[in-house]
C-alpha cells in the first residue's frame, strides 16, 4: 500500500507534543510492515536540530507549485529528506513566509494571526504533492492543521483528477481541544464553495472549524485510544463536536498509540546515565536516579522517592489539582521534578513551588528532550492527573522505564495503565496507580497509596517488572491503522 501521512510536526524535524512522536513512529512501523510511506511536513528551518541538512539528507526536489489561498497565489517548493534509520521518504513544504518562524503555531503563547492561511496553504501543498509524488492509496490527515485535506479531496479532486478517484482518506484526532476554529471570513481562504459553510459540514457556531470539516469529510476517523473514541462522542468531552462524531458511527475507531522503542526504552536510550532492563533494574536505575538528582539540583538521596511530571503546563494536564493543595502534595518526604512550558499561571506556580522548597522541588520551565529521557530513567513515580487525555505517551514511556505512573483513569491513560489493587497485584497484572474522580481527595489518596507501595520493595519491584515487560511497540497499532486504511479504500471500490 502507498501511504501519504500528513502532519504539522514530526520528530526529529519539529516537535511541540505527542503528534510529533506519533507521526514519525507510525510511518516507520508501517514502512517496516512493507508499505511505501511518504511523510509530508512544513519546512521549519529554525526548528531543525544542528547538522540536520546532512543527517536527514535534506535537498531540493526541484519541484515547485503554486497554491491559491483566498485571493493570493503563493509559490512553494518541495524539499526531500529521509526519516533517519528508515525507508520513509519525507517531503518538506518550503515556504519561508509561512514556516520560517521560531515555533510552529504560536509566538509567546499567542497563536499566529495567519494560522488558518498557513495551514490552508499547507493542505493545498499536500494535494500538489499527492499529484507529483503519487498516486497514493491512502492519505492520512492528522489534527486540524491538515483536516481540510479530506474535504479538498472529496469536494474538488475526486471528480477532477483520476489520481484521487479511489484514494482513501483518514483523519486522526490527537486532541479534540484543538480544532482550528477561525472567524467565518476565513472560509474564503479554503477556496471551497460557501454552500459547505453550514452547521452539518464546515460551520461551527458561526465560525469555520477545520477539525469538524475533517470529521465530516474523511472516509474514516480515528482517535488515539479506544476510550477517547467513546468519550468524544459525549457532551462532557466532545467539545461541541460530539454530534458530528456520533454521526460517524462505526467509521470512528480508537487505536492506542505505540511507543518508539528505539528512542524510548531504557535498554537502548542514548541520553541516560546507564542503560538497564528488567534484570539490571535494581543495580542500574539507582545510578540514573543519582544522576538526575544531581542534574536538577536536588539532594542525592537514594531512599527518597522521586516524583516527576513532564508536560505542557496547561489545565488539561491536571495542574489545578496541585494548585488546590500544594501543602498536601508536599506532605511526605518525596522529591518533585516538573519539566514543562505553557500557560503563565502554571509556570509561575511551578517556579514559586521550587523557590519555596529548593531541596524538595525542581521546577524546570523549558522544553528539553534530553532531560525528559533522564527523568523517565531516574524518577520513581510519574504523575499524569490529566482532566482528559486522548492517549498520552509519558505514562507508557514511564512503564517501560519502571517509573510507575499515577494517572487519572481517562482516555488513553485508562486504556494503558492497569491500576494496583488486591486482584491485580495477586495476578501480577498491575502496572501503575489510577484514580477515577478528578478531584484532590481521590488524587491524593492514590498518590499516597503509590508512596506507601514504594516502601514495600518487593511489591514495587513486581509492578515495575510487569510494567517494563508490556509490549507497547507500534507493531500492533500500525496493523490496526492498516485495517482502517483498507476500510477507507473499500469505500471507493464499489
Ligand atoms: P501532549 O501531546 O498532549 O502534549 P503527550 O503525553 O501525548 O502530551 O506527549 C507529550 C510529549 O511531549 C512527550 O513525548 C513528552 O515527553 C514531551 N514533552 C512535553 N513537554 C516537554 C518538555 N518541557 N520537555 C521535553 N519533552 C516534553
Brief account:
39% of the residues lie in helices and 20% in strands. The chain has helices at 18-32, 52-55, 96-99, 115-133, 148-160, 187-190, 210-217, 226-231, 242-247, 281-296, 319-324, 326-329, 344-356, 369-378, 394-400, 411-416, 422-426, 440-455, 457-468, 474-490; strands at residues 2-6, 36-42, 59-69, 72-82, 89-94, 106-107, 110-111, 138-142, 168-173, 181-182, 203-204, 207-209, 220-223, 252-254, 306-313, 335-342, 361-364, 381-384, 404-408, 433-435.
Bound ligand species = adenosine-5'-diphosphate
Number of DSSP strand runs: 20
Sheet with the most strands?
Answer: 9 strands, mixed
Q: How much β-strand is present in the residues? A: 15-25%
CATH architecture of the largest domain: 3-Layer(aba) Sandwich
Please count the helical segments. Answer: 20
Specify the helix fraction band.
25-40%
Helix-and-strand structural type: alpha/beta
CATH superfamily grouping of the largest domain:
Glycogen Phosphorylase B
In the sheet with the most strands, the strands line up as 3-4-5-2-1-8-9-13-14
Domain tally: 2
Amino acid at each position: 500500500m502507498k501511504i501519504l501521512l500528513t502532519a504539522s510536526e514530526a520528530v526529529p524535524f519539529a516537535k511541540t507534543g505527542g503528534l510529533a512522536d506519533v507521526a514519525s513512529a507510525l510511518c516507520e512501523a508501517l514502512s517496516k510492515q512493507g508499505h511505501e510511506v511518504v511523510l509530508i511536513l512544513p519546512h521549519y528551518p529554525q526548528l531543525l536540530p544542528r547538522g540536520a541538512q546532512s543527517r536527514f539528507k535534506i535537498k531540493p526536489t526541484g519541484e515547485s507549485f503554486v497554491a491559491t489561498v483566498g485571493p493570493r497565489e503563493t509559490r512553494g517548493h518541495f524539499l526531500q529528506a529521509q526519516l533517519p534509520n528508515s525507508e520513509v521518504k519525507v517531503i518538506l513544504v518550503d515556504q519561508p513566509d509561512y514556516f520560517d518562524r521560531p515555533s510552529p503555531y504560536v509566538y509567546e503563547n499567542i497563536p499566529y494571526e495567519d494560522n488558518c492561511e498557513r495551514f490552508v496553504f499547507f493542505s493545498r501543498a499536500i494535494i500538489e504533492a499527492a499529484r507529483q509524488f503519487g498516486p497514493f492509496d491512502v492519505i492520512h490527515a492528522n489534527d486540524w492543521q491538515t483536516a481540510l485535506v479530506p474535504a479538498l479531496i472529496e469536494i474538488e479532486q475526486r471528480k477532477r483528477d483520476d489520481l484521487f478517484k479511489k484514494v482513501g482518506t483518514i483523519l486522526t484526532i490527537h486532541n479534540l481541544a484543538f480544532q482550528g476554529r477561525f472567524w467565518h471570513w476565513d472560509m474564503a481562504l479554503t477556496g471551497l464553495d460557501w454552500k459547505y459553510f453550514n452547521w452539518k459540514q464546515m460551520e461551527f457556531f458561526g465560525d469555520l472549524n477545520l477539525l469538524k470539516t475533517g470529521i465530516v469529510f474523511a472516509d474514516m476517523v480515528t482517535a488515539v485510544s479506544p476510550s477517547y473514541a467513546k468519550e468524544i462522542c459525549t457532551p462532557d468531552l466532545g467539545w461541541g463536536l460530539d454530534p458530528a462524531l456520533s454521526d460517524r458511527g462505526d467509521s470512528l475507531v480508537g487505536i492506542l498509540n505505540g511507543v518508539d522503542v528505539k528512542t524510548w526504552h531504557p535498554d537502548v536510550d542514548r541520553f541516560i546515565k546507564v542503560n538497564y532492563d528488567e534484570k539490571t533494574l535494581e543495580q542500574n536505575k539507582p545510578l540514573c536516579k543519582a544522576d538526575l538528582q544531581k542534574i536538577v539540583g536536588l539532594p542525592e538521596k537514594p531512599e527518597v522517592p522521586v516524583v516527576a511530571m513532564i508536560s505542557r503546563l496547561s489545565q488539561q494536564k491536571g495542574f489545578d489539582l496541585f494548585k488546590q493543595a500544594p501543602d498536601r502534595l508536599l506532605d511526605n518526604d518525596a522529591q518533585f521534578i516538573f519539566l514543562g512550558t505553557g500557560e503563565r499561571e502554571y509556570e509561575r506556580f511551578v517556579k514559586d513551588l521550587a523557590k519555596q522548597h529548593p531541596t524538595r522541588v525542581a521546577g524546570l520551565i523549558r522544553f528539553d528532550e534530553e532531560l525528559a529521557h533522564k527523568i523517565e530513567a531516574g524518577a520513581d513515580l510519574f504523575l499524569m492527573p490529566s482532566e482528559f487525555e486522548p492517549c498520552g505517551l509519558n505514562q507508557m514511556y514511564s512503564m517501560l522505564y519502571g517509573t510507575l505512573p499515577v494517572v487519572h483513569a481517562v482516555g488513553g491513560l485508562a486504556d494503558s495503565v492497569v491500576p494496583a489493587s488486591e486482584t491485580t497485584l495477586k495476578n501480577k497484572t498491575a502496572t501503575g496507580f489510577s484514580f477515577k474522580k478528578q478531584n484532590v481527595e481521590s488524587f491524593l489518596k492514590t498518590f499516597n497509596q503509590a508512596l506507601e507501595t514504594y516502601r514495600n520493595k518487593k511489591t514495587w519491584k513486581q509492578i515495575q517488572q510487569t510494567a517494563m515487560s508490556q509490549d507497547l511497540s507500534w507493531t500492533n497499532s500500525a496493523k490496526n491503522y492498516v485495517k482502517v486504511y483498507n476500510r477507507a479504500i473499500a469505500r471507493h471500490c464499489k
